[in-house]
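Entry 12.
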Amino acid sequence: MTTGRDSVGQRSETVRRANLSAILRELHTSGSLSRSELVARTGLTRSAIRGLIGELVAADLVSEERAEPLGTPGRPSPLVHTNPEQAVVLALEIAVDSLAAAEVGLGGRVLDQMRVDRPRRDLAAGEIVADLVHLAAGLRRDHPTGEGLLGVGVAVVGVVRRSDGFVSTAPNLGWRDVPLGDRLRAGLGSAGPIAVANEADLGALAEVRRGAARGADDVLFVSGEVGVGGGIIVDGKPMTGAAGYGGEVGHIAVNPAGRPCRCGSTGCWETEVGEGALLLRAGRPVDGGRVEVNALLRDAAAGSRSALDAMHEVGRWLGIGLASLVNVLNPRVIVLGGLFGRIYPLVRETIEEELGRRALPAPGELVRIAPATLGLDAPLLGAAELAFEPLLADPSRWLPPHGMLALASA
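Predicted 3D structure (tokens):
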């Protein structure tokens, strides 16, 4: 039987955990803040902030330091900052033509990072997992930190069930029904909890927390390379669907008379705006990869008519697809990543023209389009944010018991 005193204690503990979370999130996303700034941002009292920061300091998650005098009366509020090397996650990324790994500390500091190119061909999941384990081992050997990792976040170009990291399909990798989370867990051993998500979903998360959409609550992230991925943030939270399969904007059917897509359908948006479509329209080898794309961008910058025409057509289809998404989602910001971010300056007017023609006036007038600022690494940094989420959601799980805190402060 639960007594009234027990109920009050449970409520008090719930509030404490929420307040710890609010403070650590602010420090993680905003960097060093004074106690006064934390009071203003969280709405907590000065005494509450002082006590909660003391708990985080005891866990070695944050540190305090004396602020520089401002030449005004009174003592300046101490500055609080995270301890990146004391709380570290491993981020992994599986892209179509590269693999990447990074160790990232609390506060988003990249401590070490490696990226290696891979051939653009179907590779067995086992080979990819083995390569990722090798990359991760190299990072841990070259940059050992703390006593272990908080967790592992993985970005993959595929449709992912978030509950267990099961990749139902990854057309541009040639994968179907791959238990990626289980295989990485076995390969990495005791590397900590593993969370797997679609790379565009994680690109969106990174751009919201640290990039072009920072501070926005309703964001659409659309990234293009070989394929097209989309990440959606609604009211500050990722919109991933019932099992994590949501956001596959590249496979919206836009052209019934279009080309076959690797997903098995026909006329997907990806077939009109992806890298292959751009190269095809420019008369270049469809499988030319980054070398041909870079050459095409140079030609376009030099004023080549064929290059500019190809980009104009891709921009037109980009605008068509984005208009439909604006009407459905009503985002405040659209972030264009990968290839789309690179060509945006050349196709901006074309995109805006299609949006003006096809988007409903009310949501169309509200939206802002911006190229991604985190570049190629957005999904990798988003994977780190995914791995940090358990700590940010409930820091109390990493804190010493209250009794130990009391002894430490005695």
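Annotation: Residues 213-373 form a domain with the Nucleotidyltransferase; domain 5 fold (CATH 3.30.420.40). DSSP finds 14 helices and 16 strands in the chain.
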